[in-house]
Predict the structure.
Amino acid sequence: MNSSKYNIKKTNFFLGILLPVFFTYSYLLISGYIEGDQYYYRIFYNELASTKAFDVISVGLIKVGSVEPISLYVLWLGAQLGIDKDIYISFLNVLLLSLIYIFCRSNRVGLIPMFLLLTNFYVIVLMTGAERLKIGYIILLLAAISNGRKSRILLGASFMAHLQNAILLPSIVLAQNADSIRRLLKAGKFKVKFISAIIGMAILAAVFFGIFNEAIVKKVISNISHEARDPQLTNLILLTVVGFLATRNRWRMIVALLPLYPAVLILGGQRINMIAVTLAIYFLIKEKQLSHPLVLLLLFYFSLKSIPFIVNIAKYGSGFG
């Protein structure tokens, strides 16, 4: 039997076993999450059941301050079908965890780091309190297991699920052109492809800001007022050091994480650190470096960090207490 076909069958077999585990795991987490942002999202979901398709964006803006069409319409679909919110979100969580599993298996991630990823603090946050961002990450994972134009289209679509994913764009463009940047800095030479990528990113950013400028400004002002006094640069620096020591391509890792330093000062540490962890883990998985001792230690820390978050859900109905 062809080894690739065998691996696919093996992956599908174990995934079939894990699906009910993922669903139960999700339902137990989210059924008790009734406070914080979820208080408003539960009201919003119930209201979507009687909302007409053309009114979804306006209702989303009023009720939860969201204008991202993909996330809003995904939630609207579940409400329109009359599916209980906890069950519907659990199905989305099953999809999220399944895509993480498939991505890890396709890149030969070991069982221990895979388990630590599935119990990672940020994954728990995605499953419970970050509804729109979860949908954005589902699309990002679909992009990660796809190739070529399909992958690029999905990456762009993820911005329409949550504005936060747009912050990934500069890092991704710089990482893909890391060699061209090195050549430009060393010898003043550059490829037309690199300049085209920069121009394309600038145009996309201008269009994106033109469409969502009001929502973006509100988000920035809100985050500055709440988080700028504690930018959590220490966490980003620690992640950069671990990524630098563990990666096979140190220049690419530095170039990819560099844009997040000014971003953390504007948007605050919590969401930017999540993006930084996403980028670093992605590159380390692709390099087959997730079993590096420092990376395992970092993953173990994030799994431990999820424990008080889950305890808070049980005690207070919200992971953030």
